[in-house]
Amino acid sequence: MPQHKTIERKALIVGIVVNVIQVAAGMAVFFMTGLKAMFLDFSFTAISVLSGLVAVYLSTRTVRTTERFPNGLFALEPIYAICKAIFTMSLLVYSLIDVCRVAYDYFVLGDGERIVTGPVVIYEVLTVAICFGLYVYYRRENRTIRNASTMLTAECKSTLVDGAMSFGIGAVAVFLMLLPAGGPLDFLHYTGDFFITVALVAFTIKEPFSVLKDAFIELVGGVHDDDETNAFVEAEAQHHLPENTEYEQTLIFKTGMNYTVDVYLAGTGETIDVANLIECKRSLEQALKKRLHIVDVDFVFN
What we know:
By secondary structure, this protein is mainly alpha-helical. The protein is built from 9 helices and 3 strands. The protein has 2 domains: about 1-220, Alpha-lytic protease prodomain-like (Up-down Bundle), CATH 1.20.1510; about 225-300, 2-Layer Sandwich (Alpha-Beta Plaits).
């Protein structure tokens, strides 16, 4: 397995183990308190566990080539990111509808149950610390492979959302513990769950949209727009030009962890040596693999 894929797979497995522990603890706290925001919290983490298992499987499969798929199955990586983003947005919308129903029952029908915070504060403090650590870990591992992993990017943003949720829920739990009963804000003891969930959804909904946008661009063949990568590829392309050619431009396409580089050239002589063309293609690919690792170069003549 290529080194980049090994790093990606290791990071995903670490995330799965950490998230399984969080899900078990979150479920326990939810059943103890009945806090709706806790359902959103542990369900979000459960999605990370399931998607992580899928990601680990894909990490070992997408790089493999077959007669039918000679270039691998890298398109499955942005598809994975798209599916995860859609699931995440669906969960956020479901949770929003659920707490709106609770708020309606209290404010309109006068029916509601007092929120029990109990062990929520301790759980959320630990969860915030764990999510922050996992976020830093994902980000560091992805940076070691030049942010090439679409799946690690999705997991990184997902963990950031999870940590933000835990922080918000913990902050509200502390506030409700300190809020005296019978005061003008007593209604928060019944509907505080609604306000924090709405705030969390508003704050975090942009992250899955961001993942969805980037993965869609990869899937439909959009040009890669990372300035640092583009500058590196352009410089290397100009150092590996075939004889009797002139450099025009470079277009980079990224699908999952696979890069395709189209180097546009113009002929400056009457003939072009095919052997030299192939040699330059291979030498350029070797130079680019130092950073991009999985890359295919095509010379394009207008």
